[in-house]
Write a structure and sequence with these properties.
The structure holds 2 protein chains of 2 kinds. Chain A is an alpha+beta fold. Chain A is built from 4 helices and 6 strands, in the order αβββββαβαα. The mean pLDDT of chain A is about 90. By secondary structure, chain B is an alpha+beta fold. In chain B, a hairpin with a 2-residue loop joins strand 3 and strand 4. The radius of gyration of chain B is 20 Å and the shape is globular. The N terminus of chain B is likely disordered. The chains are: A alpha+beta, B alpha+beta. The interface between A and B is large, with 41 and 39 residues.
Chain lengths: ~140, ~250
């Protein structure tokens, strides 16, 4: 099984979004993990003045896996917008949590720390990007 | 913090560092992941105009995690040094990878993706941070601008991961000692990920020489000046001394 098939195996519910629709919004409370089954999603992050696009995700990419490792952060750190028609698969959270709990506690702790740093460095990068756009 | 309340697990190796002591140096090969048990460390990078401190990490923070992805085959891109008295818990990359083998495949996939994402974001952060420092005047003379050469040629390249991938055509616009600017047709962008931080193997066709193979990583800030194409900066990574010399000698020709 390739990575896509392994992840796809955890899909519980499929959801469709039209072009321009928000799949989720920054600061929204949600612990859901999605995989993109069809289409593309643009990830944006609020900066001091306006929003900065930080990434574009495509089929097979996963949204919210950081949250899985760091459940303390229940709020979305970015906004995800559908670019064209998009279908996402919502992953079975119960199964994921069970798998994660079986992970060696030292690794779990390491991944939680890294997930936290990803969150903070993403925020700092977005604010730097905004500053450098303003300076140009 | 949650981790502090957990039972302490047997650590692999505890090492003390004195103030200012180097933990690892940019360019060194590493095969360890570090956790700050006590004190604070500083991550820095040596640039042509001096050293720039990119980050400071305190207790419970982890660094050196990229070795989990590249297995220690790539040199450290930064230096780490102790700020004051520091105690680090050091684990060998292989021992961590071994523990990961026991994990369910989806957890392994997610962990690997998260570390990659962190590495990409770190890289973009670093570029922006350095640019900002240079603008502030720390680098009054930007080291690269006068050393660029416009160069029209075709560069064959392909993603570094998946060496079986077919070669793509890029149209070189200009080259500097640290990076190359290449125009890529939009249809290629639909097939191959060109987001910042993506790594490629590239073949530079200098006149009268065999193609020079180098590795390049996409810089943020792609431009779309020509319809149907986008121009990307690829920063050279892990450049060997002989490759660096060849590039510099071509630029000054």
């Amino acid at each position: 099984m390739n990575e896509f098939e392994i992840i796809n195996n955890y899909v519980k519910v499929r959801r469709s979004f039209g072009s321009g629709e928000n799949v989720f919004q920054e600061n929204e409370e949600s612990g859901e993990v999605f995989i993109i089954l069809e289409g593309q999603i643009r990830i944006k992050k609020a900066a001091s003045s306006g929003r900065v696009a930080v990434a574009r995700l495509k089929k097979g990419d996963v949204l919210g896996e950081a949250r899985l490792f760091d459940p303390a952060s229940e709020r979305r750190s970015v906004t995800a917008v559908a670019e064209g028609e998009v279908v996402v698969g919502l992953l079975d959270h119960h199964r994921l949590t069970t798998d994660l709990n079986a992970l060696d506690p030292r690794l779990r702790s390491m991944m939680r720390i890294l997930a936290r740093r990803l969150r903070s460095i993403t925020a700092e990068t977005a604010s730097l990007a905004r500053q450098s756009e303003e300076n140009q | 913090m949650l981790t502090k309340n957990q039972k302490k697990l047997p650590p692999n190796q505890i090492v003390k560092y004195s103030p200012g002591q180097l933990i690892f140096k940019e360019g060194d090969y590493g095969a360890s992941v570090y956790r700050v048990a006590k004190g604070k460390i500083r991550i820095s990078k040596e640039l042509q105009w001096g050293k720039v401190v990119i980050n400071e990490l305190g207790e419970e923070e982890i660094f050196g995690e990229m070795t989990l992805i590249d297995g220690g085959i790539a040199p450290h891109s930064n230096s780490a040094e102790a700020m004051g008295e520091v105690v680090l818990e050091i684990r060998h990359t292989l021992s961590i990878m071994e523990d990961f083998q026991a994990a369910s495949p989806i957890v392994r996939i997610f962990a690997e993706r998260l570390i990659r994402k962190l590495a990409r974001t770190n890289l973009i952060y670093e570029r922006l941070f350095i640019q900002q420092q240079e603008k502030k005047g720390n680098g009054a003379t930007s080291p690269r601008e006068d050393l660029r050469k416009s160069w029209e040629s075709i560069c064959k390249y392909r993603p570094l991961r998946g060496h079986t991938a077919r070669l793509l055509d890029g149209f070189v616009q200009e080259i500097g000692p640290e990076d190359i600017r290449i125009m890529v047709a939009e249809h290629i962008l639909l097939q191959v990920d060109h987001s910042p931080g993506s790594k490629f193997e590239m073949f530079l066709n200098f006149p009268d020489e065999d193609p020079l193979m180098v590795h390049g990583e996409i810089l943020p800030g792609a431009r779309g000046d020509t319809p149907g194409y986008r121009a990307f900066g690829f920063q050279f990574i892990h450049l060997t001394e002989s490759a660096r010399k060849k590039i510099e000698s071509f630029i000054s020709r």
